[in-house]
Amino acid sequence: MKVINKPDIFSLWKQICFDDDLKSFELLFHALNARLIKFCVFYIRQKEAAEEIVSDVFVKCWESRKNLTGIVNPETYLFVAVKNQSFNYLKKYSNIHVVQIEESNEVEFINTFDPAKELERKELHFLLDQAIASLPQQACIVFRLIKEDGMKYKEVAEILNISPRTVQTQLFRAMKKLSVILAAHQVSSKSAVNSSVPSPLLGLSVFFILLKIFFIGL
């Protein structure tokens, strides 16, 4: 497995703020740009607009660098800045009101029939990706930041302005809903082969499949 060395974001930030180091700014941009765009898309659902928002955030950081010397976690600061700019974009260009609501327990099953009959693992990953996208917005963001970006509960809590306990709750709610979707998929695809598997055991087995894929890896 190829090991990719992550840049020291804090060191780059200090060189930007204290030394006006343009090279460090370029390295910071390349290190976080793609992740910030993906994060922004969670909110506004438009990649081109997300690219502009993230670009504007970086430009403002460069222009205000002398006032940002006290930032101790620049990565979290940038994620929060992008989130805030996303909210401003939604308020300006749409009638969408960003609110935190409790979603119902209903889960919409997504048809993932694959005419090419891909391998089961690829089909499962595709199903999960669609299922993650169908989660409530905050649960989806929490799940992706922790799993895909490797962030800690505390970091995600700071970005979303919620408690670490809420982050943990959202993550396990997401896991629960994803396991329901997977169980429905397994029932529909295998009922013709074996209908004797008790549903509680099926749900438990699906949960551990989910856990293995996302937190251990296949």
Largest sheet: none
- How far apart the termini lie comes to 14 Å
Number of helical segments? 9
> What is the CATH fold-level name of the largest domain?
Arc Repressor Mutant, subunit A
Radius of gyration from CA coordinates: 20 Å
Helix-strand string: HHHHHHHHH
Mean pLDDT metric: 77
Global structural class: mainly alpha
Q: What is the H level of CATH, i.e. the homologous superfamily of the largest domain?
A: Winged helix-like DNA-binding domain superfamily/Winged helix DNA-binding domain
Q: What is the highest CATH level, the class of the largest domain?
A: Mainly Alpha
What descriptive keywords fit this protein?
218 residues; mainly alpha; Rna Polymerase Sigma Factor, Chain: A; Arc Repressor Mutant, subunit A; 2 domains; 9 helices; elongated; sigma factor; RNA_pol_sigma_r3/r4-like
What does this structure look like?
The model is unreliable at 96-118 and 195-204 (pLDDT under 50). The chain folds into 2 domains: 9-93, Rna Polymerase Sigma Factor, Chain: A, CATH 1.10.1740.10; 120-216, Arc Repressor Mutant, subunit A. It has 218 residues and is an all-alpha fold. It has 9 helices and no strands. The protein is elongated. GO terms for molecular function: DNA binding; sigma factor activity.
